Predict the 3D structure of the following.
Amino acid sequence: MPEEVENTEQAEERPEVVELEALRAENEGLIAENEELIDTLQRVKAEFDNYRKRAARDQEGLVARAGERIVKELLPVLDDLERALEAAHAHEEAKLEEGVELVHRQLEQILEREGLSPVATDGMFDPHVHEALLTQPSAAEEGSVIEVLQKGYRFGDRVLRPARVVVAGPREGSASNGDEG
Amino acid sequence: MPEEVENTEQAEERPEVVELEALRAENEGLIAENEELIDTLQRVKAEFDNYRKRAARDQEGLVARAGERIVKELLPVLDDLERALEAAHAHEEAKLEEGVELVHRQLEQILEREGLSPVATDGMFDPHVHEALLTQPSAAEEGSVIEVLQKGYRFGDRVLRPARVVVAGPREGSASNGDEG
């Protein structure tokens, strides 16, 4: 009996028993931490998944709404065009001309609000925004734009369509009429 | 010396030592698992973050592109309107009328491609797509649309603008002319 007591006391003081207790506690902590990490990971993954699905839906919606917004803005233009057509069919020429001017102004304003702006053509030929369809001998400075065949437009900072222009050639008699730019 | 040997042998067989070994191994496994989970979590979080940033950029781009596409389609309409205006200023009435008809057709086609469709008005009044501005005594069936004051349009399956119409009242003399729908 005294032997047993001594054995027990020795066991509790033995370093491996102390380490055993510490390891058990540490393992419990690690298991709890792991479970928490797995929970967090599953939650983040689920959030990510939902976000992905929502983003795809949102994108479709955004594109549809962007289209709808512009289309809605264009309805008055369509209305006024129809009114102009009625004036044309009734041979009300003044009303027709007025109507066309109104429609033109409206459409220009809508497109401007969307980000459209005309390309400047009152100066030298600029290959970034102009397309030279012809070079013609001219009294104007060589290389300057002398005629606009089709207006050019930017959308935001990009050139949506270059202006198609005629460029002044050399002033001398040796005209290079008809050259493609 | 023989005592020591015996002690060592006893130690190796003691259950707490066996458990100690198992716990140490388990501990190492748990720590490794833990590190892996933290790595995975950080990776998923970083992916999520990047996805979020990219999605925001993509959305801006999508909306801008949707606008740009429609604006680009409308450039020929603007060109033809300008040509019609030139005809108007030159008093070329036939050319002006032709031009307006062309512009109207173009704009209608573009908007149709975008998803616009006119609301039908050749039948009974339908509060889902019509707005009754007037009820007038009429030879037509009571409740039928007898005049369209402004065309209505759907965009996809939504009513973008109801058609503003005049509705036939009762055929009898007790006309309810002027009622708001």
In short: Confidence is low (pLDDT under 50) at residues 1-6, 174-181 of chain B. Helices of chain B lie at 2-13, 15-89, 93-114.
